[in-house]
């Protein structure tokens, strides 16, 4: 089990080497391919490559009535005041809910003997040739690789949100 220091170390040492060229789709599910490269701690110049997929579900609009129905239950007067404020300011607010499915069944891994930078360069070159707009290369921490992947997912949500909100507004959902 990871401790707080391991989490922090993984978050601080996650680097996106090649970001996907596309963002999370506003209407429909988006499946991203990830190649997460990490150095093995016990072995010099041995690198693990995890190749897999994760799916971003279609963003859902969270309305003030959603908050009223779900968030204010069991809360006191202050929560109700907040829900009322949300209702009054609904036109100025755009809250989206994103969901990810991470299926380990889609993850394969292999270990190669090579300096990590060479591995990252080779993978990047291969993806450039394939012109795959939904693939990402992440350099992370071996033991906490899932934390690295989730950090990437959160960052991707933040990058996609403004485009998703803009598209929803253009189509009259807000």
Topology summary:
Elements: H1 4-12, E1 15-18, E2 30-39, E3 46-56, E4 60-61, H2 64-70, H3 77-88, E5 96-97, E6 100-102, E7 108-113, H4 116-130, E8 135-141, H5 145-170
Structural descriptors:
174 residues, alpha+beta, 6-stranded mixed sheet, two-stranded antiparallel ribbon, 5 helices, 8 strands, 40% helix, elongated
What this model shows, in words?
The protein is built from 5 helices and 8 strands, in the order H-E-E-E-E-H-H-E-E-E-H-E-H. With 174 residues, it is of the alpha+beta class. The protein has 2 domains: 8-59 and 98-170, no CATH class; 62-97, no CATH class. The strands form 2 sheets. Strands 1, 2, 3, 6, 7 and 8 form a 6-stranded mixed beta sheet that branches. A hairpin with a 6-residue loop joins strand 2 (30-39) and strand 3 (46-56). Helix 2 runs antiparallel to helix 3. The radius of gyration is 20 Å and the shape is elongated.
């Amino acid at each position: 089990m990871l401790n707080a220091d391991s989490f922090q170390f993984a978050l601080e040492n996650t680097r996106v080497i090649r970001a996907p060229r596309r963002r999370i789709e506003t209407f429909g599910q988006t499946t991203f391919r990830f190649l997460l490269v990490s150095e093995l701690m016990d072995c010099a110049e041995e690198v693990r490559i995890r190749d897999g997929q994760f799916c971003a579900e279609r963003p859902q609009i969270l309305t003030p009535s959603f908050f009223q129905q779900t968030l204010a239950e069991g809360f006191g007067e202050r929560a109700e005041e907040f829900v009322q404020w949300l209702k009054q300011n609904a036109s100025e607010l755009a809250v989206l809910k994103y969901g990810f499915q991470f299926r380990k069944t889609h993850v394969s891994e292999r270990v190669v003997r090579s300096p990590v930078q060479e591995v990252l360069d080779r993978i990047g070159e291969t993806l450039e040739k394939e012109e795959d707009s939904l693939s990402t290369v992440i350099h992370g921490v071996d033991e906490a690789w899932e934390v690295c992947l989730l950090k990437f997912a959160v960052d991707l949500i933040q990058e996609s949100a403004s485009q998703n909100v803009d598209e929803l507004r253009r189509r009259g959902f807000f």
